[in-house]
Design goal:
Elements: H1 2-36, H2 42-72, H3 77-109, H4 119-141, H5 144-152, H6 154-174, H7 179-210
């Protein structure tokens, strides 16, 4: 009976992690839409702010659940593997929520960024969003092959970041009027690179959970 109750609590822990992952996915999707729009949208910023705040609360809630499971139950090795991995994954998810908000603030403060065409940044953003979704899905499905696919795709993110960097350097020399906004684009690309790195971390912890 006690073991059944413990398994139910572990299932609830996984559910709460997935909920936090969904918050981060929504935030990243909003950011990508905001980048593509011709003008800054205040409502999008407000939603990302709310999602970041909810992610902070969710992180604390999950931390509390993990500690309760460790100290009030008798977890076996596989249980401890899951609980310790969840603790690591929520840290990465919380950072993704922060980076989504950082990007929105850059979009808010940059005067000319919406008037600059930046196809490589858009491509990088979409690739990062897919990595994040796949990392969360790999946890839901306990799918080691999908998790492996996520960290194999990190090379594409690195390549796209270098493409954005090269394009920014070239365009700064051609158009000094947009130099500050072009630097903002490079900073946004760096945030997306970090989102990709955090997605890789999540996928690696999924691999640890399933014993791969």
């Amino acid at each position: 009976m006690m073991r059944n109750k413990f398994i139910e609590e572990l299932d609830q822990l996984s559910t709460e992690l997935v909920k936090m992952g969904s918050m981060c996915e929504e935030g990243t999707d909003i950011v990508i839409k905001a980048i593509k729009e011709p003008h800054f949208n205040e409502a999008q910023l407000e939603r990302v702010v709310l999602l970041e705040e909810e992610s902070d609360k969710q992180e604390k809630k999950i931390e509390s659940m993990c500690l309760k499971l460790i100290f009030s139950q008798q977890p076996v090795a596989s249980d401890l593997r899951l609980i310790s991995s969840v603790l690591k994954m929520i840290s990465d998810l919380e950072r993704i929520a922060d980076q989504n908000l950082d990007i929105m603030h850059l979009l808010e403060e940059s005067e000319n960024i919406h008037g600059i065409k930046h196809d490589k940044l858009n491509e990088m953003a979409e690739a990062c969003a897919k990595m994040l979704k796949d990392s969360v899905d790999s946890f839901i499905r306990r799918d080691a092959s999908l998790a492996k696919k996520v960290y194999e795709e990190d090379a594409l993110i690195d390549e796209l970041f270098l493409d954005v960097k090269k394009e920014v350097i070239r365009r700064i020399g051609d158009d000094e009027d947009f130099s500050e906004s072009l630097i903002d684009i490079l900073m946004i690309a760096k945030y997306f690179e970090r989102i990709g790195d955090h997605s890789v971390n999540i996928a690696e912890w999924v691999s640890f959970v399933v014993g791969e």
